[in-house]
Amino acid sequence: MYVFDAPQQASLAVEGSADRFPVRRIFCVGRNYAAHAREMGKDPDRDPPFFFTKPADAAVDTPCTIPYPPLTDDLHYEIELIIAIGKGGANIAEADVMDHVWGASVGVDMTRRDLQWDAKETGRPWDWAKAFDFSAPIAPIKQIANVPSVTQGRIWLAVNGEIKQDADIADLIWSVAEHIATLSQAMTLAPGDIIMTGTPAGVGPVVPGDVITGGVDGIGTLEVTIGEKA
């Protein structure tokens, strides 16, 4: 028994199925494309990857309309390859990572950029910039057996039909196998974990009424409309 009704399980759509993927945690890899690292004022390097998190219920199915969030005047998009974990484990070897992957998708790491810059300047965590409501719109997850590759393929994003981000997931500084293996050294991964693998260069702001489209070749596409301010 609970003192009030337990929250509904966060979940995402599965491509071609009425079943849903239960979301346990959302891990995000920071600065995982060299060109994006440069545009954020950092040198691209092979230092160990770093991670931040979003709450599970930040995930939202696409297509969708999300409200422009409070406390910001600088909401940015970041298109990302999404990996969905189906088998848990700790200290996973790079060669074994794909045995733990249930599927893949494409999503947008919505970011309150002004709050992120403030956090960086003051040495504070990024939570207020990254971990807000509706901050992880994600397309239906495709089972990994139907995914042609998580090591190469065009990744792109457009705003109102104008291409803003256009790269290849082969440009990841840390591959899917590398950064998931690293993450599993810090904590035990579990079924339902989602990994947002980083964004290429070209991030920028959106305003209410803008329509974001994007995708990863062979994996999926999405559409997100920015609604009025919450």
TrEMBL record:
<protein>
    <submittedName>
        <fullName>Fumarylacetoacetate hydrolase family protein</fullName>
    </submittedName>
</protein>
<keyword id="KW-0378">Hydrolase</keyword>
<feature type="domain" description="Fumarylacetoacetase-like C-terminal">
    <location>
        <begin position="26"/>
        <end position="226"/>
    </location>
</feature>
<dbReference type="InterPro" id="IPR036663">
    <property type="entry name" value="Fumarylacetoacetase_C_sf"/>
</dbReference>
<dbReference type="GO" id="GO:0018773">
    <property type="term" value="F:acetylpyruvate hydrolase activity"/>
</dbReference>
<dbReference type="InterPro" id="IPR011234">
    <property type="entry name" value="Fumarylacetoacetase-like_C"/>
</dbReference>
<dbReference type="Pfam" id="PF01557">
    <property type="entry name" value="FAA_hydrolase"/>
</dbReference>
<keyword id="KW-0479">Metal-binding</keyword>
<dbReference type="GO" id="GO:0046872">
    <property type="term" value="F:metal ion binding"/>
</dbReference>
